[in-house]
Design brief:
- This protein is of the alpha+beta class and about 100 residues long.
- The chain is about 25% helix and about 10% strand.
- The chain has three helices and four strands.
- The strands form two sheets. A two-stranded antiparallel ribbon has the order 1-4. A two-stranded antiparallel sheet has the order 2-3.
- The chain is elongated and about 75 Å long.
- It binds iron/sulfur cluster.
Amino acid sequence: MVTEKIKPIQQTETNDQTRSKKTAPRIRPSMKKESILASDYNKYILPFSCEECSHFHREDVTCTFGLTTYPHLQTTQQKSYALSGSMALCRFQEID
Ligand code: SF4
């Protein structure tokens, strides 16, 4: 009769344990940014910022829907595009 030695199961670290040693996990995923071709950016007048939206209140820099406006402000969008070629376009933007 052959008996096999049963090896003890080694406890491995889960992803959460490994991640917590390096950096804390994100509470929420980062905002998705969309790439825009430079030729399209230069050729078309793209409405991409809160300042061009009907729901934007210039006085207090807020949104009718209560969304965070900072990622969609014109200066933020232009800086993002200059650095990465992508922007965080708002799905709720409306233009009159
Ligand atoms: S709907 Fe979007 S683009 Fe319009 S003001 Fe609100 S956050 Fe800005």
